[in-house]
Design a protein that fits this description.
CATH topology of the largest domain: Fumarase C, Chain A, domain 2
Protein name: Argininosuccinate lyase
CATH superfamily of the largest domain: Fumarase/aspartase (Central domain)
Order of helices and strands: HHHHHHEEHEHEHHEHHEHHHHHHH
Distance between the termini: 55 Å
Number of helices: 19
Shape: elongated
Keywords: Amino-acid biosynthesis, Arginine biosynthesis, Cytoplasm, Lyase
Largest sheet: 2 strands, antiparallel
Number of domains: 3
InterPro entries: Arg_succ_lyase_C, Argininosuccinate_lyase, Fumarase/histidase_N, Fumarate_lyase_CS, Fumarate_lyase_fam, Fumarate_lyase_N, L-Aspartase-like
Structural class: mainly alpha
Strand order of the largest sheet: 1-2
GO biological process, one term: L-arginine biosynthetic process via ornithine
Oligomer: single chain
Mean pLDDT: 96
Family: Belongs to the lyase 1 family. Argininosuccinate lyase subfamily.
Length: about 450
């Protein structure tokens, strides 16, 4: 079949050139949206009298027939028709004949593809927000179980201070809350209709862009036709938000991978989220967590890829914009699957409470408790810090811990230290006492969880 834009040309392209320029291998993912956009467009053409009712109804019947065939996977896309738009127009011509050519009145592929992507991303954003919301629910439920589970808190990956494991989980809840907010705000930029901007300058036909937007469920229309066909900010925002989300998931996965190791043994993943080794029979590898950590770089690449495409494009449409889709599709699939995995993995993760607690009792993460104790007795904190630092060094040299030092040895250093110091050095007590707003104390963690449940 002759190309639908072929009137200007008298030469014939080579097949390999056509294949290089074709986007149908990937933009066929927009088939559903393309048909939805076309239905709204033809209804607008009828509404404004640009098409007769008979012509419009014939086109609508053809488009609805194509929707049924698409649902049954009965449409075979071809590279010869290069993209989803020309493929659909060809199918429509086969369905209803020459009147199909009237569908493209007052429309360009430039505003058509932009409309398709806005529709696609609106659907994806709705699904992403729902999955993040569910993961937040999983985190809150798990945190509720482990408010009084004592775990080591880290800085520089060194034991710092004991904390509530529920508090640790709620830190990720806060991150995911911000992620959900970002994707929700992203919807505002996706929920704009470019349809009717045509190639770049609008059209001389008496179209009604607000009518088309309402048919498609958009909240508003682009106010500038050049911007409408060349804007990809809504996709860049999605990719940026996805990169931040994946960064959060990757950090969590990094910790899970460490916690699953023989050296930590803090948690165990179920078999569903683990794999074995082809040579080492004993292995149980946290592969799903590792894959999410690895796929984070892939999502970053999708963002930087489109940023690089966009940085040098003059207004308005350029063929470079064909490269805006694969990264969007890839990132959408990646984050949706990753969120499902994270929700299932954390919900079923077994926590070794005894091992976590033990790890806070054979270290010096209670050193700050001793320094705070001395400061509360009136000693300047810097002086208290110096005293405790020297005590830690002595303990390391002698092979014991702060809680092992006899009271008389403490009082030889300063009479400020009394019998109650041993309770203060206990990990459980140390965590419970940190009751400042947002702290790891049990009451504060419960307040975080109560607030989260109200939000959810």
């Amino acid at each position: 079949m002759a190309k639908l834009w072929g009137g200007r040309f008298d030469g014939k392209n080579e097949a390999w050139i056509d294949a290089f320029g074709a986007s149908i291998p990937f933009d066929q993912k927009l088939a559903k949206q393309d048909l939805i956009g076309s239905l709204a467009h033809v209804k607008m053409l009828i509404h404004t009298g640009i098409l007769t009712k008979a012509e419009g109804e014939q086109i609508i019947a053809g488009l609805e027939a194509l929707q049924e065939k698409l649902a049954k996977n009965e449409l075979t896309f071809t590279i010869e028709n290069e993209d989803i738009h020309l493929n659909m127009e060809t199918f429509l011509h086969q369905e209803i004949g020459p009147v199909a050519g009237k569908l493209h009145t007052a429309r360009s592929r430039n505003d058509q593809v932009a409309t398709d992507m806005h529709l696609y991303l609106k659907e994806v954003l709705t699904e992403v927000v729902a999955k993040i919301h569910h993961f937040r629910e999983v985190l809150v439920e798990k945190a509720q179980e482990h408010i009084e589970t004592i775990a080591p808190g880290y800085t520089h990956l060194q034991h710092a201070q004991p904390i509530s494991f529920g508090h640790h989980l709620m830190a990720y809840y806060q991150m995911l809350t911000r992620d959900e907010q970002r994707f929700t705000e992203n919807m505002q930029r996706a929920d704009i209709s470019p349809l009717g901007a045509a190639a770049l300058a609008g059209t001389t036909f008496p179209i009604d862009r607000e009518f088309s937007a309402k048919e498609l469920g958009f909240a508003q229309v682009y106010q500038n036709s050049l911007d409408a066909v060349s804007d990809r900010d809504f996709i860049l925002e999605f990719l940026s938000n996805a990169s931040i989300l994946m960064m959060h998931l990757s950090r969590f996965c990094e910790e899970i991978i460490l916690w699953c190791s023989y050296e930590y043994q803090f948690v165990e993943l179920t078999d569903t989220f683990s794999t074995g080794s082809s040579i080492m029979p004993q292995k149980k590898n946290p592969d799903m967590a590792e894959l999410i950590r690895g796929k984070t770089g892939r999502v970053y690449g999708d963002l930087f890829g489109l940023l690089t495409v966009m940085k040098g494009l003059p207004l308005a449409y350029n063929k470079d914009l064909q490269e805006d889709k694969e990264g969007m599709f890839d990132t959408a699939e990646t984050i949706l699957t990753s969120l499902d995995i994270m929700s299932g993995m954390i919900a079923t993760m077994k926590v070794n409470k005894e091992r976590m607690l033990e790890s806070t009792q054979k270290d010096f993460s209670n050193a700050t408790e001793l320094a705070d104790y001395l400061a509360s007795k009136g000693l300047p904190f810097r002086q208290a810090h110096e005293i405790v630092g020297k005590l830690v060094l002595q303990c390391i040299q002698n092979g014991h811990y702060l809680q092992d030092i006899p009271l008389e040895a403490y009082q030889a250093i300063t009479p400020l230290i009394e019998e109650d110091i041993y309770e203060k050095l206990d990990s459980y007590t140390a965590v419970k006492r940190r009751h400042s707003l947002g702290g790891t104390g049990f009451e504060q963690v419960q307040k975080q969880i109560d607030t989260a449940k109200a939000q959810l």
